[in-house]
Amino acid sequence: MKDRTTQTNRLAALGAHLSARGYEVDLIEQGLRVINTQVTPNTTVTITCRARPEDGGRRWFFTTSGDPVAEAGRVIDAGVDIMSRLADRDHHSGEAAQ
After folding, report:
1. Which of 18, 19, 46, 58 has most Cβ atoms within 10 angstroms of its Cβ?
2. What is the C-alpha separation between 60 and 38, in angstroms, rounded?
3. Cα angle vertex 53, ends 8, 94, to 5°?
């Protein structure tokens, strides 16, 4: 249970950061869904938080397609990466292109 709570807290912190910047966010069972409603069509990415074995097991944010975003303690860095993914759907593959 502690692992799930830690993951949820970190995703909630990231969600608060992105929400303050005008993104629509929603904590769902799969992770944190982030929507850029400022572009048409809207772009969406879902972010998870889990251990990254190649970084000593530290928690990282990942896209649901498995792309690393940033270490979970680096909310601002993660926010910049996510905003970039959602702003320029022509230059990023995967979920944000939906």
Report:
1. 18
2. 27
3. 65
Position 96 in a domain:
no
User: What pLDDT was estimated at residue 72?
Assistant: 96
Looking at residue 75, its pLDDT comes to 97
Which CATH number do you get for residue 29? 3.30.310
Residue 97 lies in a domain: no
Residues β-bridged to residue 34: 25, 45
Structure tokens at 90: 């022509």
pLDDT along the chain (98 residues), means of 10: 66 96 95 92 94 96 96 97 82 44
Domain ranges, residue 14: 2-87
- Spatial CB neighbours of 88, under 8 Å, sequence gap ≥ 6: none
Secondary structure percentages of the chain, helix, strand, coil, to 5? 40, 30, 30
